[in-house]
Amino acid sequence: MDMSEGAGRTENSERVPTGISGLDEMLGGGLLSNSVAVVKGAPGTGKSCIGMEYISKGIRDYGEPGLIITFEEFPRQLYRDALSIGFDLRDFERQDLLRTIFTTPAVFLREIQQPGGIFDRTIEEISVKRVFVDSMTQLERITQDPVELREIMYTFLNGLLRYNITAVVTQEDAYITGNMSVAEAGLSYIVDTIIQLRYVEISSSVDRAIFVLKHRASDHDKRIRRMSITSSGVKVEAAFEGREGILTGNPYVSRRVRRAEEFFK
Amino acid sequence: MLDFENLDPQVGAFVEEYIDSFISWDLILFFHENPYTVGSPSSIAMSIGRLGSDIEPYLERLADKGVLAREYRGQGGSETIYAYKPEPDFEKMVIEFKRALKDRASRLIIVSKVLQKEAGR
Lengths: 265, 121
Description:
The structure holds two protein chains of two kinds.
Chain A: E1 15-16, H1 23-26, E2 31-32, E3 36-41, H2 47-62, E4 66-70, H3 75-84, H4 89-94, E5 98-102, H5 105-113, H6 118-126, E6 130-134, H7 146-161, E7 166-172, H8 187-190, E8 193-202, E9 205-215, E10 225-230, E11 233-239, E12 243-244, E13 252-253, H9 255-264
Parallel strand pairs in A: 3-7, 3-8, 4-5, 4-6, 6-7
Antiparallel strand pairs in A: 1-2, 8-9, 9-10, 10-11, 12-13
Chain B: H1 9-18, H2 22-33, E1 36-39, H3 41-48, H4 52-64, E2 68-73, E3 79-84, H5 88-102, H6 104-119
Antiparallel strand pairs in B: 1-3, 2-3
């Protein structure tokens, strides 16, 4: 069975713009409607910033109420972090356009499964269209058994998709640079879109890189692009031109560029 | 100086009614700052650095007073989860309570009152 074809999912090619400068262009217009996208990366690469901006822009620019589910960071920390990139989550909550649920994976999994549970009620109360879950890695607290964990993730994501919502979830990479794994607990096979964030060391400083590893049944930008986090949100910039080995975290100047540099010496 | 009468009467009434221990103090501020928390006693306890068994009676008391909503889950409703459901007036009072805590004299009065309550239990 293809785990990406959950029962609640609607078949369409509609796009849900993230609203993030440059990212929608990479995604051919946005995320697939009623789908789940995972943003993977090491701590500090900007996963939560992408999620918070996706929710905030949805509310502010597209009139789509949002739900944030946080398993680790306290909402008060998210409110603070969101403010530093230009979004006032508390204000959205006051306007009943957002809920930030702080809970444990075990409690939330049970709520998703519970008919009329807190998840169902929250979705209905404010007509949620966008969900951000931070982070799926925390589901590992429920079980260490990989088969069971995969089933839990599958249940969890299909529970999210019962409603006509589009979800962004995060997953933490264990390695800061270098090694890169794709499919912890099979999550990468279940989701429709994988956005990978990486640290890249260039000339003794660390940059952030972003690329779209998977975007089901869609054409997308295959380039690795530079990403920055500013006081007005996430900016996806130009590709790393003239460098190779970006994914290793230690890129080198490509032979073509080196020859050109030697030519001009 | 530590006379309860020197405290803002509204804050005094709030402390009298809701802050019967340092745990209820922690819980009220925690839920106020993280208003859509949903959790079991053990998960909430972890968030405020306490023991689940220690905070359970206080969660129950806050639920009895209508500050928290409680729902029963699991086989035969054996597990309870709690969420914050305060009236707007209660939220206003928490804001006043927080303001009072920033004032050293008021804070000392409140601490002494809570210590008194804890000693009397």
